[in-house]
Design brief:
The structure is a homodimer of 150-residue chains.
Chain A lengths: L1 H18 L3 H12 L5 E2 H8 L3 H14 L2 E6 L2 E8 L1 H13 L1 H15 L5 H29 L2
Antiparallel strand pairs in A: 1-3, 2-3
The first copy, chain A, binds a DNA duplex (30 and 30 nucleotides) through helix 4 and strand 3.
DNA sequence: TTTTTGGTTCTGCAAATTAAGAACTAAAAA
DNA sequence: TTTTTAGTTCTTAATTTGCAGAACCAAAAA
């Protein structure tokens, strides 16, 4: 149990770095990832994390809207039980892999601005980076497709 | 010129999202990416951005330490001229690409915690995600290697 | 009908971030 | 030697973020 708390903190920190969300949001997600059972009620989450209702409510609703978590209910129990939506997570992985293309946008903007630049060698270096970047994006898309149709 | 200001803002925003640095830091970098010539003095940067010396000083020193920018000097001119370090940028692209492996760390932590879980189907789904994730990381590393040794 | 449950929304505070401004400094120029 | 240049560092102010606490609300239970 205390073990679980430590794991939640550890994974929480990882999530903060990866997903760029607030500490509490990350801990909510981390908890749902390793809690047994993998679905937990509002109040169980709140109590485990020792956080306020408002903070938990906002975190949960953020994830619900975003599709990262879903909830199930049980007969004769008014509570909602929240759990990680693994289907959506696959999409998130794909998105992340494709986020390399943001870099492409940037590099293209640079190239556009430098079309008529006197400083050709700088232009060429940026172009090279763009080629590398494009190459990686392409390989990633191939890899994703390969996995999905299999 | 005003065009340049707009481009700097646009790229600045992109950089904020991608690199998670402060607005001014992002604008300094954006400016160096498209300024003509591609090297600019402290004061030229400060003036173009309409920012304070302290803010510009801190931004520049951040990037210098981090390797993202370098400077050159000219005979008979005491000023340093700062420019984007394209070599380092390639490394940054690689780092970013490899950050997919952070996800692996997380998924492994989840699996470790769930080894003895009753909820096998959830475990299996996470395992599947981990396999996907591992597959992508591997393909990414292959792609990087392929590009670098070529 | 009143009370309880399962939350949601509003208000406000504390901490962190961001950047301005002014005082400062080391090296070069005059 | 004094002054100027090219920044750096320190202090402070303004936002922004993250969250607690309390008031609130609709549906279900009593």
């Amino acid at each position: 149990m205390n073990d679980t708390k430590q794991s939640v903190e550890k994974m929480g920190v990882l999530l903060e770095r990866m997903n760029h969300k607030s500490p509490l949001e990350c801990r909510v997600f981390a908890f749902l990832l390793i809690s047994e059972p993998p679905y937990k009620s509002f109040d169980e989450i709140r109590e485990f994390l020792g956080a306020s209702k408002s903070a938990v409510s906002n975190a949960i609703n953020y994830y619900l809207r975003d599709g990262s978590i879903i909830y199930k209910t049980f007969n004769g129990d008014r509570k909602r039980y929240f759990m990680v939506n693994t289907e959506e997570w696959e999409n998130k992985i794909i998105e992340k892999a494709q986020s390399l293309t943001e870099m492409n946008q940037l590099l293209n903007e640079v190239l556009k601005n430098r079309e008529n630049s006197e400083h050709v060698e700088f232009y060429e270096k940026i172009k090279k980076l763009n080629d590398f970047q494009t190459f990686l994006s392409q390989k990633m898309n191939q890899a994703i497709e390969e996995w999905v149709n299999k």
